[in-house]
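Below is how a single chain appears once it has passed through the pipeline. First comes the sequence as given, then the structure the pipeline wrote out for it. We keep one example in the README because the format questions we get most often are answered faster by looking than by reading.
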Amino acid sequence: MMRPPTQVLIRLAKVTMIGSLAAYAFIVAYNNVVDDGSNYQFVRHVLSMDTTFPGNALMHRAITNESIWRVAYALIMAMEGLTALLLALGAVMLLGRLRAPAEVFNRSKVWAVAGLTVGFALWFFGFMVIAGEYFAMWQSKEWNGQEAAFRITTEILAVLIFVSLPDRDVG
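Resulting structure:
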């Protein structure tokens, strides 16, 4: 069955957005592996809380163990990589079903939704909740990634909503 051009265009928009986020997550993960020193320092400073307000009553949460810093950094990179992998797989799966019936296309969204969920968990829960609030990253002038995390989380959420809208057969 021939799909109407508007339906194909909407599906292509979903694939493009998923693919773009996959590329973003891949580049972030790659940068963290290649520029290990800079990005590791970010994790170290946030977890040790050494640039938060002086006399901060939350300092009992600080982690000064280098092994834990390394594990946290590895977990961040693994989640970035997993996000990229799931989103790339999602984009490929949807692209391959671009002209399929709506039911088939909708079922194929599972990998993209999984990637968007992992990315949301990383940038919202990991950076906004854990780093931002628990480790008081918001107090740091030098090592504060909340604006970037909020921006990424918002983009992921917008794409998740758009992709989750059910496609239907038209015409």
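The chain has six helices and no strands.

See the next section for the split statistics.
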